[in-house]
Design a protein that fits this description.
Strand content: under 5%
Order of helices and strands: HHH
Distance between the termini: 33 Å
Structural class: mainly alpha
Number of helices: 3
Number of strands: 0
Largest sheet: none
């Protein structure tokens, strides 16, 4: 884990828990220059939505293997 990104995601979760909507979270993250996960430079609504709905962040892992 990258500590700065972990802090950013925890901040977004806390604000969402307090009732902030996706658009307001995006505006807050960009105005406060929260580090963006991945290769992007800015936060956008689909990214925040994807982060908040990602089951891996609560420890869910679905192993799989592809067979030809």
């Amino acid at each position: 884990p990258i500590p700065e990104r972990v802090t950013a995601i925890r901040t977004l979760f806390a604000l969402a828990r307090d009732g902030w909507g996706i658009s307001k979270l995006v505006r807050y993250a960009n105005e406060n220059s929260l580090p963006v996960p991945g290769k992007g430079m800015t936060w956008h609504t689909s990214l925040v939505n994807r982060v908040l709905s990602n089951a891996a962040l609560i420890g869910y892992f679905q192993p799989r293997c592809n067979v030809d």
